[in-house]
Write a structure and sequence with these properties.
35% of the residues lie in helices and 20% in strands. The chain has 250 residues and is α/β, with parallel strands linked by helices. The strands form three sheets. It has a seven-stranded parallel β-sheet, sandwiched between helices. Strands 6-7-11 form a three-stranded mixed β-sheet. The mean pLDDT is 97. The chain binds NADP nicotinamide-adenine-dinucleotide phosphate. InterPro entries: NAD(P)-bd_dom, NAD(P)-bd_dom_sf, NmrA-like_oxidored.
Length: 250
Amino acid sequence: MKIVIIGGTGLIGSQVVNILKDKHEVIAASPNTGVNTLTGEGLEDALKNASVVIDVSNSPSFDDEPVMNFFKTSNQNLLPAEKKAGVQHHIALSVVGTDKLQESGYFRAKQVQENLIKESGVPFTIVHATQFFEFAGGIVATSTSEGKVKLSDAFIQPIASADVAAFIAKIATEQPVNKILEIGGPERFQIDEWIKQYILSTKKSLEVETDVNAPYSGAILQKTTLTPENPVYLGTTEYMTWIAKPENQR
Ligand SMILES: NC(=O)c1ccc[n+]([C@@H]2O[C@H](COP(=O)([O-])OP(=O)(O)OC[C@H]3O[C@@H](n4cnc5c(N)ncnc54)[C@H](OP(=O)(O)O)[C@@H]3O)[C@@H](O)[C@H]2O)c1
């Protein structure tokens, strides 16, 4: 079976490529390999005879305007091209709580992506994952002001990117469900407490200040905004085991 992985060179995409490449014809499609969903470059060729498309691409910029342009334009190019090519299953990775995080420009763009998929006429599965373990550093970077990391005490149920990739690779060989499937990690933390564990592992001397109104990606969180309601799969990798490995301490 031919499977095209848009964003196949990224954190999730490269792991999905590795899992599927022995049993399937896998194309890792990204600007680095000559396929650009924003401009349409290389898209028609990549999609020829493809049965499944997995979209795990991400915008190079998370600022409101470029991120909206990325997910809107990319999907407006990709989905009609898939329809024309006869693709039978479009799989896209999005985020648990996207519909509740619409104060955030990033999540407004992810919602537009999801709406375009649902309207496209291409059979689909949208996977809503929780935050990746690898994203802790990104949360610190966007939550630091005046030398302090300001975070809410809402819950988070992070997942190892390897567990996300394994789930996506599994559903690539299954039928589309035409709805959202939620996945998450095995444990629930408060965001402030989770990030303290991450900071300890990096040996940086950063102070975490808990503030229930501290925004996450520009949106105020309720206690369970970021946790899955009805997960169909929970990753098995526990955070403290994962972060204890030297290769994960970045
Ligand atoms: N971070 C989290 O905690 C989290 C949680 C849940 C869901 N997600 C979702 O997971 C998805 C994947 O995230 P990730 O961290 O694996 O991404 P990533 O490592 O940043 O990789 C992004 C990929 O997108 C590709 N890309 C960029 N511009 C493109 C374009 N114009 N056309 C085609 N491909 C393009 C990149 O290709 P090049 O290498 O060629 O630049 C790269 O392969 C995202 O959609 C995100 O919303 C993230």
